[in-house]
Every structure is written in structure tokens, then in C-alpha cells.
Amino acid sequence: MLKTKDIMKKKVICVKRDTPVVEAIRLMSTNNITGVPVVEADMTLVGILSEQDVLRLYHTYKDEKDRTVNTFMTHPAIYFDEKEPLLDVCYRLRDNSIRRVPVTSNGKVVGVISRSDILKYILQLCDGDAVPAVVASNNTER
Length: 142
Fold this sequence. Notes:
Layout: H1 21-30, E1 35-39, E2 45-50, H2 51-54, H3 57-64, H4 69-72, E3 80-81, H5 86-96, E4 100-105, E5 108-114, H6 115-127
Parallel strand pairs: 3-4
Antiparallel strand pairs: 1-2, 4-5
């Protein structure tokens, strides 16, 4: 069965709690991503900063633009273990309206997986460029 680690992106842009929020927004915008994992120096996941988390800056930027990621991040972060079945990831992304999620191994960030990563894999399956995983269940009502 296909696991999260099989299609996750291993190059992950992360920020620290003390990163200025404007710098984090700039990173997300420049790299065209919807969120970044917030980590300690040893890559331990402590939260996530998403576009949704920082939207309030539209009307509070004068008072909050000098604050850090710690003020805005969501914690604890939703994450997937690298060994989690991809089918379970699909259901959780769908059911929770999440776009991208950090992937961990022993609590450390090792990747990120997004809806678009899964869609690209689906296209590879449709084009015959990927090997389909064996799916144990036909439960589509999850």
C-alpha cells in the first residue's frame, strides 16, 4: 500500500517561532505555498502557519506587522506520519478542508504533502506513468 513518504515533497520550507510574520508571509508568497511548518532548531514540529492564520493582518497590520510567527501559528499542528497510508491522507485532507500538511518521522519534519501532490499522482496513474497501489477497501463514504 502506498505511504505518505512515497509522494511527499522532501524539500520543505520551514520557519521558526521567532521568525517575523511578514518574513514568513513573504516566503509563502515567493514560493507559492499556502502554509509553512513551524519547527524548533532540531526540526521538531511545533505548529503551522497558514494563509488563513495571517489574513487578519489585512486590517491589523499597523499593530501586528512586527510580531512573530508564534503569535499567528496554529498549534498543535495537524500532521501525518511518513508511514501513514496515502488513502487515509486523502480522506483527512478532504474531510478537514486542509491544503498541505507536514509529514513527520519521530516528531521531526521530513516532508510535506498537499492536495496538489496527490492530484499529480492521480494524473500519473491515469497516464500510466505510476504504479497503482493496492487499495484494501472500497469504502468511499469515509
